[in-house]
């Protein structure tokens, strides 16, 4: 605590003496948002520096279309294996208009099982037989395990994959594009987990192309506090660059074997992000030679295209703005009213890395309420 206070004091000194103001620092990753909110780090930020959440929740950004596909397969007797986070993920359907999630599908007799890993799914599919599909969501952190299962020949004949893996650097570029030339995002805390795979150097473009300081950081509160200090220092010096604060886990190159497997198994393609649309070169699709593992191909289901993509958030949900750092959960009129952790309406209230769920569970909104009720001094 003493160290955190000392770092916070250093933040304040730099900001006050150098006149830094209106700075938003984006914590890309949902786990960083958890650390920030759970430990109340926003309350330690100096005036003029705001921490905003980013698009780093893989469940939140999984398009509703693929939830619909998974639900359809489960209801038709295919066993759908899913990570727990995606189990309650709602599709874009409004409430009361049919089965909206794998959890609801299971409640209505659909075949859905929660697994901890792709290997768990492979083992169960082999042991139990019957048509099986693994709902392969996630960023560069989970894509290598999907690739490894396929490349190492462990997947039984009765199993295929609904691949919705997404890549993180392209969506960061999209965030800058959306915010435009006068982007208030003046610093980025890059994701630690993802960087163990892709390497810290994958984030160099943030500093070099957008002139924004970027720090790859770990997930302890002090990691985040130090990352913010580095970013403020770089802003004061006017020298944006890439810093790797998480050297105990992240190298500049990342994990060469994991990257090789992803390259071997997948093509990089333009891909849909929930509520956002298609983002160039931001997704992974199985290569032609591995098409037999593709559940869409296997069951004759068309993939999404820019032409068939429909806005896929339920009416009124502002999840896309939350993930792009444009809005806070408290800007959504449904937050903690029609949308709560026990009765989620939009995707950001479902995944453990969803900003709305984190704010709801750990009081991220309390500070905002205090501000609006008793003024900025709160
Ligand atoms: S509170 Fe619920 S409805 Fe509102 S943006 Fe968050 S997930 Fe969507």
Could you describe the 3D structure shown?
This protein is an alpha/beta fold. It folds into two domains: about 1-45 and about 170-245, 3-Layer(aba) Sandwich (Rossmann fold), CATH 3.40.50.11750; about 65-165 and about 255-300, Rossmann fold, CATH 3.40.50.11740. It is about 40% helix and about 15% strand. The strands form three sheets. The chain has a five-stranded parallel beta sheet with strand order 2-1-7-8-9, sandwiched between helices. Strand 8 (about 215), helix 11 (about 220-235) and strand 9 form a beta-alpha-beta unit. Helix 1 (about 1-20) runs parallel beside helix 11, helix 2 (about 30-40) packs parallel to helix 15 and helix 7 packs across helix 12. The longest helix is centred in the N-terminal third of the chain and has 17 residues, at about 1-20. It is globular, with a radius of gyration of 21 Å. The two termini are about 20 Å apart. About 50% of the residues are buried.
Features:
378 residues, Rossmann fold, 2 domains, 5-stranded parallel β-sheet, 4-stranded parallel β-sheet, 11 strands, 17% strand, binds iron/sulfur cluster
């Amino acid at each position: 605590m003493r160290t955190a206070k000392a770092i916070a004091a250093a933040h304040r000194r730099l900001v006050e003496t150098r006149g830094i103001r209106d700075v938003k620092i984006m914590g890309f990753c949902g786990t960083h948002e958890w650390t920030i909110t759970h430990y109340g780090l926003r309350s330690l930020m100096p005036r003029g520096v705001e921490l905003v959440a980013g698009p780093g929740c893989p469940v939140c950004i999984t398009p509703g279309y693929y939830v619909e596909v998974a639900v359809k397969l489960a209801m038709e007797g295919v066993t759908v294996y899913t990570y727990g986070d995606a189990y309650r993920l709602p599709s874009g359907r409004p409430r009361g208009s049919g089965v909206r999630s794998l959890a609801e599908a299971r409640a209505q007799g659909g075949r859905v099982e929660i697994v901890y890993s792709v290997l768990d799914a492979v083992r169960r599919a082999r042991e139990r037989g019957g048509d099986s599909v693994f709902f392969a969501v996630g960023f560069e952190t989970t894509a290598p395990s999907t690739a490894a299962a396929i490349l190492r020949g462990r997947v039984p004949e009765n199993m295929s994959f609904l691949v919705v893996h997404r890549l993180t650097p392209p969506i960061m570029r999209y965030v800058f594009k959306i915010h435009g030339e006068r982007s208030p995002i003046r610093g980025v805390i890059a994701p630690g987990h993802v960087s163990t795979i892709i390497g810290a150097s994958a984030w160099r473009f943030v500093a070099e192309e957008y002139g924004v300081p970027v720090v790859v950081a770990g997930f302890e509160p002090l990691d985040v506090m130090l990352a913010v200090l580095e970013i403020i220092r770089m802003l004061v010096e006017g020298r944006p660059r890439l810093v790797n604060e998480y050297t105990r886990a992240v190298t500049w190159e990342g994990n060469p074997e994991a990257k090789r497997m992803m390259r071997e198994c997948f093509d990089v393609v333009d891909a849909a992000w929930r509520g956002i649309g298609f983002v160039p070169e931001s997704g992974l699709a199985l290569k032609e030679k591995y098409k037999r593992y593709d559940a869409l191909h296997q069951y004759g289901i068309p993939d999404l295209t820019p032409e068939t993509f429909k806005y896929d958030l339920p009416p009124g949900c502002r999840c896309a703005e939350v993930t792009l750092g444009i809005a806070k959960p408290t800007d959504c009129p449904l937050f903690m009213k029609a949308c709560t952790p026990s009765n989620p309406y939009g995707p950001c209230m479902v995944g453990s890395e969803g900003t709305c769920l984190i704010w709801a569970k750990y009081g991220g909104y309390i500070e905002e309420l205090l501000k609006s009720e008793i003024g900025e001094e709160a």
